[in-house]
Amino acid sequence: MRQSFILLFSIAALASCSSSKSVATSSKTSNKKTVRTSTVKSTGKTIESIVITALSYEGTPYKYAGISHSGMDCSGLMYTSFRKHNILLPRVSREQAKQGKKITLGTVQKGDLLFFKTNKNHKRINHVGLVVETRKGIKFIHSSSSRGVIVSSLEERYWKNAFAEARRVL
């Protein structure tokens, strides 16, 4: 029974790579872990810590549904990097794309999420990256199915054409 539940949960979580509007934070109350959806006060320190965590996975190979140094997919990288700092995002990119506030590229900052539609046949968000630099163009970390966890530029033709939206969750 437990294996069936885990399998069903895994299949549901892996169906896509997306985002949503509110951010869940976790806290411990007595012996139970509670999850609250709320607005998270962002600090430069929190954002920088999340970016550093994401960058620590650079070079990790791509693995569908992966969330560790042995393998990671794009939404798993966001999920894991934010979770380490007690900010819970949905596991898949299309659900992550519903989190926070939609912003314009002109206002993108380090720590914002970029969403992409890389499969033109489905026309839905299926990829996510985390902005790590904005000084010399927008650079983001993500997990590429061909190259693993890497930093790319939004100026690259492929990413510029696939870009769908940017969101601020912190």
TrEMBL record:
InterPro entries in alphabetical order: NLP_P60_dom (IPR000064), Papain-like_cys_pep_sf (IPR038765), Peptidase_C40 (IPR051202)
A Pfam family the protein falls into: NLPC_P60
Signal peptide: 1-24
NlpC/P60 domain location: 44-170
UniProt keyword terms in alphabetical order: Hydrolase, Protease, Signal, Thiol protease
Cited PROSITE patterns: NLPC_P60, PROKAR_LIPOPROTEIN
Ligase as UniProt keyword: no
Family, as annotated: Belongs to the peptidase C40 family.
Protein name: C40 family peptidase
